[in-house]
Write a structure and sequence with these properties.
The longest helix is centred in the first third of the chain and has 14 residues, at 24-37. The protein has 279 residues and is α+β, with helices and mostly antiparallel strands. A hairpin with a 6-residue loop joins strand 1 (2-5) and strand 2. It is 20% helix and 28% strand. It contains 6 helices and 17 strands. The protein has helices spanning 24-37, 49-57, 127-133, 136-142, 169-174, 211-224, and strands at residues 2-5, 12-15, 39-42, 71-72, 75-83, 107-114, 122-126, 146-149, 180-183, 185-187, 194-196, 203-206, 231-234, 241-245, 249-253, 262-269, 275-276. The strands form 4 sheets. The protein has an 8-stranded mixed beta sheet with strand order 1-2-3-14-6-16-5-4, covered by helices on one side. Strands 13-7-15 form a 3-stranded antiparallel beta sheet. Pfam families: TauD. Keywords: Dioxygenase, Iron, Metal-binding, Oxidoreductase.
Length: 279
Amino acid sequence: MRITPINTTIGALVEDVDLAQLSDEDFDLIYQAFLKHKVIFFRRQTLTAAEHLSLARRFGELEAPHPFFPHVEDYPQVSKIETMRGNPPGKSFWHTDMTWQSAPPKCSILAAQYLPDAGGDTIWLSMEAVYHSLPAPLKHRIRGQMAKHAVHGFAGSRFDHQDESGESRVDQISQYIDAVSHPLVAEHEETGNPTLFINEQFTRFVEGESADESEALLATLFSHCRDETLQVRFKWEEGSVAIWDNRCTQHFAVTDYGDTPRLLHRVVVKGTQPRLFTS
């Protein structure tokens, strides 16, 4: 097995390994690379849905089926991220998966099935690096603060279907999933590192701030997430797999391919409630 860092901040390519037939020793190396590099990439993999689930279970307990995404037949925990003719992707946002849950996922595993000839890259961002890049006064200001996250980020998207009464899926789910509070600066449960735990799609406001102050603070923090030196961009190929640490990253799907058919399968591993960084 070869593990090659893509840059000094985030991302590594793992080669000469079959994800469907991992020894315990190989998995241990992959897991340490996952913690160190935050997102790891593989080429030329041929995971079936069952093998995809089996791999994800080595990282932890699986999340329940996603409330919005369609899934592979007979495999409800294998979501389909799909573009079809006449159904292009909507607007893309920087996001961390499912932070509208009290315990957002630990990690996600995305496997490419078929792709456009060009376009459709995904970009990942190290939120640990973003936190470390902040000016000292800003770090001091946000330490100990909390922000509300909610499922509103799906409102109006292609996944927000309406029922016969005209009620949207987001409205239905919002009735039993309340907005949750997460620390702006969270502590990674395994590494102990601080990470800025916000994202444009699901973070609604900073608690204890006026609406204007919250909007301005979040805008300032999001502006620091635009630093390309803290990011890694991945070009998908059929058989590519990406595994990322949802506790300390954001990602962005580049939707530059119109309605050209594209399909990826995603399995998500359960996490724990983010804890406040206090060191």
